[in-house]
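hey team, just a heads up i'm posting the complex here instead of the shared drive bc the drive is being weird again. everything in one block, sequence lines first with there labels, then the predicted structure for the whole assembly after. its two chains so it's a bit long, scroll down
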Amino acid sequence: MQQSGIKKRKRFMLILAILIVLIISMFFISLSTGVIQISPLEVVKTLFNLGTDRQELVLFDFRLPGIILALLIGAGLAVSGAILQGITQNELADPGILGINTGAGLAIVLFIFFFQDIIPSTSALSAYVMPFAALIGAIFAAFIIYLLAWKRGVTPIRLVLVGIGVNAAFSAILTILQLKMDPQNYRQVTVWLSGDIWNANWNYVVALLPWILILIPVALQKAKALNVFNLGDDLASGLGTSIERERSVLLLIAVALAGASVAAGGAIAFLGLVVPHIARKLIGPLHQYIIPISALIGALLLMVADTIGKNVLAPTTIPVGIVVAIISVPYFVYLLMKSK
Amino acid sequence: MRSIINHSAIWKTIINFTAFFAIFLSIAISISYGSTDIDLKIVWQAVINFNPELTSHQVIQEIRLPRALSAALVGAFLAVSGAVMQGMTRNALASPSIMGVTDGAAFALVIMLAFFPAVSNLGLTAASFIGAGAAVTLVFMVGSFSKGGLTPVKLALAGVAIGTMLRSISSIFALHFQLEKEMGFWLAGGLDGTSWTSVRILLLSGVVGLIVALIISKSITVLSLGDDISTGLGQNNLYIKILGIFSVLILTGAAVSIAGAVGFVGLIVPHITRFIMGTDYRWIIPSSALFGALLLVLSDLAARMVNAPFETPVGAITSLIGVPFFLYLARGNRGGK
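-- predicted structure starts here --
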């Protein structure tokens, strides 16, 4: 037992190290690719303030905030998915499929709709307020889904089905609202529905950073409780975990992470679903390992998707949510066919 | 079960006639409502006694009448194909929009427009048939080959996954070839831009699809009792299923190529129809057509009223109507298992 625990810990450290190396190398690849090529060496130079003005502008004002946002959003959505799968005991739970992302997106569009005169959506203040609007929307969505799925308890399957329905309703309202604001601008709707890092500037980075930096460690703190859920509700309450209270705290963390991520990245689906599965495959069922590894894989995956989306069909930019969907849907289908 | 059906055959006929009359009335209202309201009397005259010199008559003949008729036909087609799907698969959630049919058709359309910009209307319709067919096949395959078989949940999730995949790929093509507007139109669903050509395409494919659906309606009733029973009764299931799939493809393909993704009509109408009409598909299929037509004509009217003078995509309206119903099904025993 002790032996395998140490072995597991070693394995965890190894995977962690590999992921960090991958993220760092991808970080430099991503910074150097684009319409204006900047070699990795020059990237390093520029980061140490030795580059040309043009290189500084491209890197610091355009590429860097976008990449950091991708890292933060990816980590946030992946951990959110890991928690949701843990508390619902449902392999197919994901903030996107459950409609939490669309709820947050809807709240943001409503926020822009009603407050665009007071707080212009391009201003710095709006970047800080938006995550809160998204949070309210996400909590509202989670509440509605839970309420509608409640029928002498909540079965995982009903939760997913209700989520699909609520998702469709929010999408419809979002479409109507968005077209009401600007009838010609269908693109903005697709941004919210498929996910896109639409406003890559430092304000959003600063606005999102505290959410991720506070909530992921809190989630890690609760990892033990998540492990207990694995045993099933009956056993968990027998072991003295006050199930419902822990469940609602964790649910709130998951919803807040998803909401804040959506505020900056739109409703990116499937990321929160697929990443925890990969993490479980790599390290097993313990959440103190799953959460950090999910965060890193999520960050890596979203950064890769962002780089692919920006470069593969340049000058056309493919919204990152679309790239994520194309990468992860086949895996989802595989999971679907395998699961009972 | 039988006695109920026999007993109320007259009632069912009356209900069908009422629905038919309601469609007629709502088409008239739909024609008279618009950027300039036209009197119902003039609407009647324009249809009966067309005078090309009057602008109002021309607006009615060239724009509003074909639009209202297209709405009715598209609604009828989607509803019937939903009914056929649900009957054949015995799956409460089977319907065109849940199963990614519309995404498949939109995918094929975007590909056609991207690589063969000079494609004719007929070519586009053909492409949307193929796309719709490919999507259904994929969703069915994923659902059927998975552990535990084709449950409603599996079907819904497979539909979401395949639909998202197809939509994502078509978005990329749309962005790259500057087809965003066309793409947005199909994904949101709408009936603006329908003309007499659309009505003709719909009628042509509709005649084939609806007749096939009606011919096999009795066999679908048997099939809806389960494959075993139906084989026991001496029915050739494979033959019926092939005909059923054929009619589903024709009907949804035509509907999608004209109106884009109009969600949930094919899901909710057959359920409502079954509730009113019982379990006999000889009644369900024609009544689904009528109720579907009525629903879409009214939804199209609502889509034009919500945010006048701009149009709201009709797909958004039908989703809002359909979702509560979907949730009801998801909570019910049939969806929850």
